[in-house]
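User: I need a structural model of PtsGHI operon antiterminator from Paenibacillus odorifer for a docking pre-check later this week. Nothing fancy, just the predicted structure tokens so I can convert them on my end. Input:
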Amino acid sequence: MSSITVAKVLNNNVIIADHPQYSEVVVIGKGIGFNRKLHDRIDLSSVEKMFILRSQEEQEQYKQLLPQVDEKLIEIVHEILLYIMHSSSQPLNEHVHIALTDHISFAIRRYEQDIPIHNPFLYETKEIYPEEYKMAEYAIERINEGMGVELPVDEVGFVALHIVSALSNRQISEVRQHSLLIGDLIGIVENNLEYRIPRDSLDYSRLVTHLRFVLERLRRGESVRETSTLDGLMKREYPEMYTLAWQLTKVIENRVRIPVYPAEVSYLTVHLQRLAQKKEDEVGMETKREI
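Assistant: Understood. Predicted structure tokens for PtsGHI operon antiterminator:
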């Protein structure tokens, strides 16, 4: 019987293994790494109920994310993704492992620091994606119960969008068009910041995910409520990144021929400021090394 061979145990629920068909893979499953040792063999029949990250890029991003995430949360997200697969009877884009785990981990940190984030797309999300919204309600309920937190209803909307992204089956021509556009937008950001974002980094994954959601909202014709308070804060505190965000939205408008709601600028500014800060931190570290 075919089997995988343990190459590295990342934690109790995640291992890196050599797969007979896909070479090195990341395998996620409850207890899959418990008491496992290097070169242990695991029958593929027992892996069928688990997720296998086949993409090398996705693997690298997931490996970077794992040390930052509670093991218990990894197990809970795995249960949630199994629930979504069974509820929808559809395969999931494997990127959701990274995107959803990263999002929930960040949401829990915001909760612990008492930093609320309002979701301006909550009502529209519930109306346009009712089935995915129900799945997201289950997800947040399970997370609150399992992690001992009280994430707000706003997070249901955010999680629902991740589910929509993972389940969406779009025409290849549109996917290519959006992929090209996102690549061009990333190039504009890098040229402006004079900083190349590592392609296997979480920063790159986060920015691409956000841009995908912007394009998805435009494609669906979703309206975005104005957030004047956040808009004023972003414009005042991060004027350079706010200007860059405006530039990006104008590029999007010209390419997709659909107006971009001004509120999108504020949320994009948040992501750009994170990248700008990351660049400053790296420059500071290089300066210290030289000294």
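Before docking, keep this in mind: The longest strand covers residues 3-11.
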